Known about the structure:
Low-confidence stretches: none
Number of strands: 4
CATH superfamily: NADH Oxidase
CATH class: Alpha Beta
Shape: globular
Structural class: alpha+beta
Number of domains: 1
Amino acid sequence: xxxxxxxxHEVAKSVSEAMDTRHSIREYETKPIPEDLLNRIFEKALRSxxxxxxxPWKVHIVSGEKRNSLASALTNAATGxxxxxxxxxxxxxxxxxxxxxxxxxxxxxxxAGIDRKDKEARDQFMLRxxxxxxxxxxxxxxxxxxxxxxxxxxxxxxxxxxxxxAREEGLGTCPQAALGAFPEVVRNELGLPKEExxxxxxxxxxxxxxxxxxxxxxxxxxxxxxxxxx
Length: 230
């Protein structure tokens, strides 16, 4: 299997295949996702582990006209305002991580046909986060818990479950911290209480066919560099 360029239009036949082939999708078909399929994915994801079975997540699945109005509101906010996330976004990274992040940006812009020096094009590409990259459904993960390291682990377990279950069904996903950048917009649009923190979101849908951007598969470090046996 060529892990540099993978098509994920078919269903995944095993957890291993879902792990090997899942990657972030940034171009989607307009085809809506059947509600029973979404329900199946998220009900199964509720089996994800959490600290003492605390289950610190709430899930908001947004499609149709509500999805469109939320995309418009978020895009407007992102165009004229600075992000105000309710979680602290990382500001510093080890040097090896910085290199991976820089390399990833260069590769994605290259596949998308964007010159790294073209700031306007890069900004427009970034804004596509807030219209869910054209996905027919957006998912917002919220929590009423005080946010700490272990709540973050629990939410990460839930997120990974959703991504793999969606891949099993032949759906594409893109997990996005950016969708937690303007929590008040999300709360207002969805009528959420103030104490419900907007953590992040997921774009989900059928991957757009014949998309080179969708075939880009992020490289990983060699196992021998990161895993040690004793």
